[in-house]
Write a structure and sequence with these properties.
Length: 519
């Protein structure tokens, strides 16, 4: 009877922990996709150039990727509840900075803070549920957490679009603060009720040099990709950045091989399915940015479909609805032995979806676009649910915590690399379309070289000013050329995403094995 009463007392307690974890997770997921929908409005309002806009995404992903794997260590050392609360506080600080900013510097700082906080919230939320929930309720609790993540990710474009059009893009970050306040109150309640899981490894060292080396390697590589089209691929700044990325990457690998508590245990990659899942997760993140950023931007661009932010959120519903449905249903209907087959199908759906999008241009009506987005939604839903399960299923149970951090690191690294490399493709195609035309008529134009750089990399006000300084006939011709460059650039980035998905499809088909014990 005493045991039964004790269970009744615990039951509302662990659900309180689940509620706190899910509220923080929802903010992270919703914010990630809502901001993507608001980016065109942010670009216009703050007059951002193309390269700065790219770093609004990349700083968020970079700080998340560099610290995700380390947060498990810090949680074990200082307590998961403290790390979760620290993440909530830092995310709120980033949201405040972005909500009040009127310049790019504070915007980028806020996004960097949010990226750092993502790592804390995502890592600690899963660990809190795992440690606070009784074994018989753990699967249900984790299922609710996954549903909160999928719901936030799927609803973000629509919520972000409606807030941007009806109030302001800044309202997205105000809503962050409201939900984060709820998460904070729930966490305080958890602590006061004595429900916070105990610290389990007070003596474990965190690999701060590893975090620094990984950050430098990723940041310099991404910056090299963005500077290549601007300064030239063989220019000293670009080459220096690639060399720095190589040196920092080599230093990171050396560090991880010899440090007793590494950020990433490279020995995990001897498990075939884990190696395949982590690599595929990079490709999954890489391709996700194709819809979250590039297709989203195309839908809202004045050179594309010219939809408002809220219309863009509605236009993406075929993607988000299919993704949400599959991410919820797939784990319950797909048997574990078939995970590899369905992960391959997921990559094939992505490949088909992006291949179909390659011939979309500014004259294509939405009625001919929406059904193509369902393939991408199916691919994202399958990959996000199955790849982590494939990877973690290959590891010994004692190592799944750190393994999960590495898989999430790969996802965020893929998102960042996809943003940078996609922007490179767009810029290079624009240069090849716009450049020759400017060269042909250069004699009649002032400073043709500067004009080419402005047209490809400049902010909206810079482009408008450059066009206004041209003769009216020439200005119209340049706008027509830029519209053609826009269409070609979009087609090029869709082909890039299709190629990445094709690589992932082959990788999943050839490398992932049916699970028979570990590996």
């Amino acid at each position: 009877m005493a045991v039964e009463n004790q269970k009744d007392e615990q039951r509302p307690g662990f659900w309180l922990v689940v509620m706190a974890a899910c509220s923080g997770t929802f903010v992270v997921a919703y914010n990630t996709t809502a901001v993507m929908t608001a980016l065109p409005a942010i670009k216009v309002d703050l007059d951002l150039d193309v390269d700065t806009l790219q770093w609004v995404i990349n700083l968020y992903m970079l700080f998340g990727a560099a610290t995700l794997a380390a947060m498990g260590h810090l949680g074990d050392t200082f307590g998961m509840t403290r790390i979760f609360l620290a993440g909530v506080a830092v995310f709120a600080l980033g949201s405040i900075a972005i909500a009040i900013t009127d310049e790019s510097a504070l915007l980028l700082l806020g996004r960097a803070l949010q990226g750092l906080a993502v790592a804390s919230i995502m890592s600690a939320s899963v660990a809190l549920i795992n440690r606070a929930t009784p074994p018989e309720s753990r699967a249900t609790a984790l299922g609710i957490w996954a549903a909160a993540l999928a719901l936030g990710f799927a609803s973000g474009p629509l919520i972000g679009g409606i807030l941007t059009d009806s109030i302001s893009w800044r309202a997205i970050f105000v809503l962050d603060l409201i939900i984060l306040s709820i998460a904070t109150l729930l966490c305080v309640w958890v602590i006061r009720e004595g429900l916070s899981p105990p610290v389990i490894e007070g003596g474990k060292r965190s690999d701060f040099p590893g975090i620094a080396l990984l950050s430098v390697a990723l940041a310099s590589f991404l910056y090299a990709l963005s500077s290549g089209p601007l300064y030239g691929w063989t220019s000293p700044p670009t080459i220096s950045l690639f060399v720095l990325a190589l040196i920092a990457g080599a230093g990171f690998v050396t560090r991880e091989l010899h440090f007793p508590d590494p950020l990433i245990r490279l020995g995990f990659f001897r498990y075939r399915n884990y190696a395949a899942a982590t690599t595929s997760m990079i490709l999954a993140g890489f391709t996700q940015i194709g819809i979250l950023f590039f297709i989203n931007s195309f839908i809202q661009s004045s050179d594309g479909l010219n939809f408002s932010a809220s219309q863009a959120g509605l236009a993406l519903l075929p993607f988000t609805a299919v993704m949400f449905l599959i991410s919820l249903v797939a784990p319950h209907v797909i048997p574990e032995k078939a995970y590899g087959i369905w992960a391959t199908i997921g990559m094939a759906c992505l490949m088909i979806g992006f291949w179909l999008m390659r011939d979309v241009d500014h004259q294509t009506p939405y009625e001919e676009i929406w059904w193509r987005l369902t393939f991408i939604g199916a691919g994202v839903g399958l990959n996000m649910m199955l790849l982590p399960r494939i990877g973690l299923g290959a590891l010994p149970e004692a190592n799944t915590g750190q393994g999960s951090g590495v898989i999430n690191t790969c996802l965020y690294a893929g998102l960042a690399i996809g943003t940078a490399l996609g922007a490179v493709v767009v810029a290079q195609i624009k240069q090849h379309v716009v450049g020759p035309y400017i060269d042909r008529v250069g004699a009649s134009l002032p400073d043709s070289q500067a004009l080419k750089i402005t047209l490809v990399h400049g902010s909206q006000s810079q482009v408008s000013k450059a066009l206004a300084e041209l003769p009216s006939t020439e200005s119209k011709n340049v706008q027509d050329v830029m519209l053609r460059a826009f269409d070609h650039g979009f087609s090029g980035v869709m082909l890039l995403m299709a190629a990445a998905a094709a690589i992932g499809m082959v990788l999943c088909a050839l490398v992932i094995r049916r699970r028979q014990g570990n590996g």
